[in-house]
């Protein structure tokens, strides 16, 4: 699938005077508009600069397009579409209007908004699925092309959606490896992040299902960096599936990152020598000792980012024994060989520094020379051996060992003393590096052997499962709008308050205890009265939420004031206020967006997007995985939960 949209061949698409914006700066303040209002105000200001499209997503749905130039030579353009979807246009549909993405990420208590905005970067394939570009233009009123809705098509380069309260979801990112006419994933994410920041979105969520060569990136990057790939843009743990919470996720990351490489190598080398070879190959490349599994994956991914696409680097160009010292190179080489022989003849694989030093003193009387060589020898190639040095995590003593790398670098040479004179013996290409990463991922993280099912390694399968079950990530942009400067205020309004509302019926019903809607930033003039404040609150919340379109403010919680009293002086700037009011539109469609009662064995109490099954007696939902129904099996026609099954057995045993 191509990751760009070239409209140059579409004759009717060409419109004289249509402005072209820079892709790399679009969304920044001033590009194309000054973003100085609320999220809704900023979207309204942005679309003023777009080209109004007709019948793009059906009658009554407004949409705008922006031509974006990725680079000029060679020419590459993409088109951003912003589609405004109003709830009135969708209310006739039989489908549940509640946002399932909000439900999955933990925002299911939010009321349904009046509008949502789709941000689309379509690919050639999605445009081709919508209409024939050679025969039809976007402005063609022919209703035949309306049989497909551009928003509902799959395969976009990017598709994000925001509700009018500023909470949104990144639904897809389809980036490609960087090429002459393609957008890479990081470019798309930077574009999305600029949009969210500029528009002053509140929170954005995503479902991390990103993969590369069959590897789940949330697992690979979690081990290497302690956060998923999307963490580069500030996305963090939002909500875990199967009852996983933030502390459990963090412990899983730390457990799998901290697996000692020396122990892992010892256990795996018994049945799989290839892993030991890979360990040695990258230890030889590193200029410092890699102690844990996290160190190894971090080094390999960092190395990948530095490697040219086609070129390679010398994998036998390690740090060398320093020769700029008071001993001659011949004496340094002799002492090095003695130490290597001492390690070869040692009873155990890992030998303490003192033991190596004592063994070498039988042949080298100069202890200063021995100390110098031992200090310089960490992770050096000597002949067919790699001299490894690391700190024992238990005894806190430096230890040395030898690794035979003749299978890694078969054309080995003599002792490397001077870096400038060393000749490369092996090349590491980006292709080889990715193969090695995939091999370690498969045999250590995914397909664990029985040798990794005991002791400290038993944590690997469990930690892997926890990390893979953590899919929903969230970035907080402006959860509570800034109280500094004149941001979010216009027309001379400089006094800001954070306000939310509660219906009188909800307040009376103590058992209901609904969460409050997110606070909205309300801007007032300095001489505004409480009557004017109430009007502003009514206007804001009617504009945002479907259920509150006839909401009328009555009182303010814990504040006894008169309508003509001045707001300034009675409350502090930035103070949070809760308004109680009445609402004629008590619409049932705005309640009960969930799928019933969820009470699973894993501890989950809400729908998290995983497959569920309902008990035919108590109608409580549980995960199919938790009740041992494999995902590749169909859901049985009749299902009883464990509790109901036990009750039936108990009742049948009664006389």
UniProtKB/TrEMBL annotation:
GO terms for molecular function: zinc ion binding. Residues 597-647 form the PHD-type domain. InterPro entries: MS1-like_ubiquitin (IPR057765), WHD_PTC1 (IPR059080), Zinc_finger_PHD-type_CS (IPR019786), Znf_FYVE_PHD (IPR011011), Znf_MS1-like (IPR058054), Znf_PHD (IPR001965), Znf_PHD-finger (IPR019787), Znf_RING/FYVE/PHD (IPR013083). CDD domains: PHD_MMD1_like. The keyword Transcription regulation applies. Keywords: Metal-binding, Transcription, Transcription regulation, Zinc, Zinc-finger. This is PHD-type domain-containing protein. It comes from Gossypium trilobum.
